[in-house]
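Protocol step 6 of 9: fold each sequence in the batch and record its C-alpha cells directly after the sequence line. For illustration, a two-sequence batch is reproduced in full.

Sequence one:
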Amino acid sequence: MKRVQLARIVSGVVGGVLLIGLLLLVSASMSALAAAGPPDYSRTGAMLDIGMSARAMALGGAYAAVVEDATALYYNPAGLLRVQGIQANSLYLDQHGAASYMALGIASRGLGIGLLHLGSAGNPYRDEFGNDLGDNFDLGETAWMLGGARSVGELKLGVTGKYYRQVIADEVSSGWTVDAGVLLEKGKLTLALVGRNLAGELSGSQGRDPFDASYVLGVGYRSGPLLLLADLGLGQVVRTGVEYQLAGVALRGGLWSEQGNQALTAGLGTKVGNLTIDYALQVPSHLPVEHRLAVGVQF
C-alpha cells in the first residue's frame, strides 16, 4: 500500500513538473523564434538527428507523446511499453542525393533494439578554395541502440543506450551515449519528457567531443479520430502536428521550426493486415523537398 501511495505521489509531482515546464517552454520557444538565427549543423553525431519514422516527419517531428512502435527507441524509450506483440519498423531515404540513410528497429513490450546508418561514397577532397584535388573519400556513420522501459505507478519510464561510430576516410571515431524518456497518460491527454544524448563523448585520433544533449517536452491530445501534438525543446525548437483517421487512412500535417529553419510537413498512413505503410514529405524553407517511406510489421 505504501509503495502504491508513493508511486502516486511521484506520478503527481512529475506530472506537475511536466505541465509547468511545458508552459515555460511555450513562452521561451515563442520568444526564441522571434530572434532565430541560422541553423546549426555542427552538432557532434549530427546523423542522430535524422530520425527513424515517416509518421513522425509527417507530424512535424512532434512524436514524443504518441510513439507506440519500435521507433520509440529513438523518439521516447518510455513508449516501448506501448508496443503490442513484436514490432519491426524500417525506413530508407536518399539525403538530397548526397548520402543514403536507413533505420531499422525491432521491439516487444518494454524492450527494443535498433540500427541507424548513413553512408556516402566518392566524396571529393577539396582545398580551402573549394577546388577538387582529384581524389575521393567515403563517409559512414552508424548507431546501434538498445532500449528498455518499465512502469512506476502511472508513469512509464524508458532508457535507450546508443553506440555511435563514425568513419571519414581513414579517421575513425566512436562513443557511447544515452537517451531517457517519461510518459504520463491522463485520459485524452499524454505528457512526455525526453532527454537525448545525455552523456558520453565521441573520441578518435582528432580528439574528444562531447555529444550535444537536447531536451523535449511533448504533449498529445486525442479525441476520437483526431490527434493533436506538440514537442517543444530548448534552443528554438517548436514542432506541431495533427492526424485525422478517415476511412482507414491517417491524414497528417505538421510544422517545425528550429533555429530559424522552418518546414511544412504532410503525409498519410494505412494498415493492411499486419503491415503498416507510412509516407511523408517535408518542404523546408532552404532545402529541396524530402520524401520518406516507412514500413512496419506486427507479429
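Sequence two, same batch, same settings:
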Amino acid sequence: MAEFKFTEAGKTASPKSGNSGTKVGGIVFAVIIIVIILSVLFNCFTIVQEGFIGVKYQFGRIIQDDLSAGLNFRIPFVEEIEQVDIRDQIYSVTADAYTSDTQSVNDLQLKLNYRYSSSMLSSIIRDTGINNVENKLLVPNVAKIAKDAIGKVKAEDLVQTRSQVQASIQNELTNVLSPYGIIVTAFAIENLDFDPAFEASIQEKVIAAQDALKMENKTREKEEEAKQIVIAAQADADSQVAIAKAEAEAIALIEEQLANSPNYIDYYKLQKWNGVLPQVVSDGVNPFVTITGSQPAQTSTPAYSYTPPTNPAVGNTEE
C-alpha cells in the first residue's frame, strides 16, 4: 500500500513541473518580444546635430539630402541617415613659389576656408565623395592657382599688394571649385619668406619712399605758406587801393561842393572843429590874446609878425 502511494505521488507530481516550465518560457519570450519592439522603435529615429545636415539612404540610394537638425524618422533595416558637416572647413598647405622677377618665396603658408553647398550635397556625394573632397579638389588646385597668381607679380609688389593678390587667388578658386559644390569663404597667405638680402632692400626702399613723402609734404606745406603770404599781400594791396579810391572820391565830392557853394568850406571847418578856442586871434592889425587863469601873462613878443603894407602911391622917406 505504501508503495502504491509513492507511485501515485510521483504520477501526480509530474504535471506540476510541466506547468512551471511553461510559465518561465512564456515570460522569457515576452521579454524578448518587448526588447525587439523597443529596439525597432529606437532605430526608427536618428538625431541630426546642429551644424550638420542629414542625408537619408534607402538601400544605398540617396532619397533625401536636406534633413535638418533634430529628431528624424527612418525605416529600420531599410533606410539609413548619415550626417554631413556643413560648417566651414579649413585646408592648409605649405608650398614654394617664384615671383615674376624670379625671387623665391619659401615655405609659403596657404589657408583656404570652405564649406559644402547644401543644394549640391547629393552631387558632391555621388561625384566626388565627402571624404575625397580634399584629395580630389583642393590638393591639385589651391597650390597651383596660388603659384600662378604669385608668378605674375614682382616680389616688391607682392609685399605691398598682398591683400589684392589674396583676393585674386580667392576669386580664381571660387570659379574653379563652385561647379563641384564647394563654396570658398576665405583665403589667406600667412607667410611670405624672402631672401634676407632682398627683404633688407625692400625695407630700405620703403624707408626712402617714406622720407621722400615727408619731404614732398614739407614742400607742399611751404608752397601753401607762400600762397597764403601772396594772398595776404594781394588782399592788403586791394585794401589800400580801395582806401585810396574812397579818399579820391571824397576829395572829388568836397571840391564839387566848394565849386557849387563857397560857404561849404565854413561848414566843413565847423564839422572838424574840436570846440577849443585859439590862444591868439589876429585880423592882421590888432592881435587878441586870450589869457587863462592857469597860465601867466605873456610878456614876450607874441608869436606873430606884422609888416605894414607898402603904399605904392607914397614915396620912400629915406630918399
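Proceed to step 7 once all outputs are recorded. Observation for sequence two: The beta strands are 45-48, 52-58, 61-67, 70-73, 79-85, 89-98, 104-116, 182-193, 280-282, 287-289.
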